[in-house]
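Archive entry. Fields below.
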Amino acid sequence: MSPLLSVQGVTVQYPVGKSGRLTAVDDVSLDLEAGRTLGLVGESGCGKSSLGRVIAGIRVPTAGQIVVDNCEMTPRRSKAEARAIQMVFQDPASALNPALSIGSMLEELVHVHGLALDRESARDRAVAVLESVELPTALLDRRPDALSGGQRQRVGIARALILQPRVIVADEAVAALDSLVKKSVIRLLADVRDRLGVAIIFISHDLDVVRQLCDEIAVMYLGRIVERRSSSDLFNSPRHPYSKALLEARPHFGERLDVASPPALAGDPPSQMELTTGCSFAPRCRFVKDECRSTDPVEESFGGSSTVRCHFPLSR
Amino acid sequence: MLATGLSIVGLVFLIGLLAPLLTSHDPLAQNVRDRLASPSGDHWLGTDLLGRDVFSRLLHGARIDVPLAVIATLVPAVIGVTLGIVSGFFGRRVDAVVMRLADVVQAFPVYIFLVALVFLLGPGARSFVVASACISWVGYARLVRAEVLSLKGRDFIVAAQAAGIGRRRVLGRHLLPNVMPQVYAYMASDAVLALVALASLSFLSLGVQPPEPEWGRMIADGVDRIRSEWWLSAVPGLAIVIVGIGFSLVAYGFERQAARR
Amino acid sequence: MSGVTILEVEGLRVATSTHPSLELVRGFDLQVREGETVGLVGESGSGKSLTLRAICGLLPDGVRRSSGSAHMIGPGGSTVDAPTQLGRGIAMVFQEPMISLNPTMRIGDLVTIGPRSQGLLTRARAHERAIELMHEVGIADPERRSRAWPHELSGGLRQRVMIAMALATEPRILLCDEPTTALDVSVQDQILRLLLGLKESRGLAMVLVTHDLAVVSQVCDQIVVMKQGHIVEQGETDRVLHDPTDEYTRRLIEAVS
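PREDICTED_STRUCTURE:
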């Protein structure tokens, strides 16, 4: 069965200054089946947001293509193509137009895509989608400034859903929410996935949040996917040293920090503009060997859609 | 604040509109024998150098000054907002052309430029509006462009485009409504400047031509008699100030609204 | 960590200046001992940041301390009003190093700006001190870095600079307002270890405001849970997190574990 979403050889580069080039995403490929959630994790500069934007059609890649249901998407999405992949944004404060009521915003989308024949049926659709994100229909006549952060985020999800997409890209969709609200929005996304069979790409810097929602996790470092595993496998036995470092670095509830032991990951990520020979993680890797510095590791698959890009993947 | 300002301006406008009903004297009717009369029961503000009733001229002046100030604000606003949006949204070449044009216009001192244009086009109300249009659009363009540039990257604009909404619609329905509150504030302040510019030009005989009862012209007419019949200049001057305050309050009211967003 | 109390906050209340009845912090009590780390936890709107700022006198416009007190307790038992001690015993570390560092000053000058403005350091000695402090907070190659501008540094480095600036005033207590929230998780790990290390090497007490319960459980001796301006639970971290008495605390813990 061919995958619902296929990302093929996507590269995103930005010109910097006169002759420099910053590589945000470096030849990334991945497939995703319908009804599955893939978490895209990594720290600043890993390229997860840029990749997410390319998938959602907001950013045109320097190279590569996005294929949905075996149809290749044009880089600048047409109106019809825009329906296939929709995005949920991070900041509830700026993701909604302050000048429009929720209802106007939703009905406009229905109208622009010809999904309803008259105002009444457009309104019905707006009502239906608000109900599906567990919001009262009274909110249709309110403006975003009257809603809480959690409510605004649900509206953001509703906006993505009203076009009946096949794929949703959530870019740090819960990062700006309080912990109690986070849980309910994550639960909503899971519900949406189960009910509608939508594939979700969930971009986040927070591994614990990703674990709650995602079947699989792809870890990115400096523009590349360094490991892709099922959530439980990644948490139990990470194979890439960076994945392991991330898992160790995150604050563990209930455990005191042992100052005597060194930090999980020292230093800062290197510049995305300098081309390095060898593995991009070598300068900071605890397990680095000579070969790592001279040769770039290739992505290797093992078991299903699991991959790792390392010369010496950690064993269990 | 907004309400007070609008009331003041509205009231003056209404007075101007109803002027023929509020006074029986013809503002243009001269009566040289009865010139420079003091205020009395018949002539509430006396008469001017040519024996015309000052009160009547004051009221009729409102029909000239207020609408002209508004028009001289609206025309450059429409031009400037349009250019500003196009410049900010589409960027690059369009932006470069518009901004360089703005730089050229702004390089000239406003009043000198205004006077020169009016001189070239011939004095009168129409020339004043055209000259204002040529000069004042720059402020709107820069303001709107800056707003658009900052809004362009906001998630809700990106989201609208990603949802397949065409550029023209994004401009009109998503960008414009978020830009307008600041534009309204700017327009109201601009109206004060337009009013003063019109009065100044007319004072210099380059604006509304006599015998029309424009307030600036009236001030000029009364300047020589300022020691004795001081009200001939003072009263129209006061009228300008009052309308100016009205517009300023409107501007302040809009500014508060825009800030709340 | 001795048992001596160095900061005492009693009945602190913060309200808006225009409407004194609109209280944002409704009665806050806290005792911090020498070398103790206190975690101040809550969701947005809980008042935790305002409480911290009220203690050191950095409240924003439109908000003021309406009643209650905050005192630093000196060696002889003498008390002095805490807001007067900012830069003289109390130091604050902010969340967003990007906007908290003056972009027109080089790092080397920024680090010692506190003591220099108080006339406590000569120019010559200031540079030496800056290098020492940068070393203490783990900035590699401090000589070269001291000439850098804030925008040239990464988030983690900027936060280290902020901590160095705080240490330059020889504080007994650090007030930290979400110091790691804007940082990557690996950098957060480094900074938290740095702060704990300073607690041990300098006997520095700390009040750490955060929304992240896991951070508190890793780093803090005492925990204070706030909700809508009130303290809902307070006590030894291990005890509270394993055996919470308040329902809200329980829900917060559930959301994390």
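CURATOR_NOTE: Chain B has a mean pLDDT of 88.
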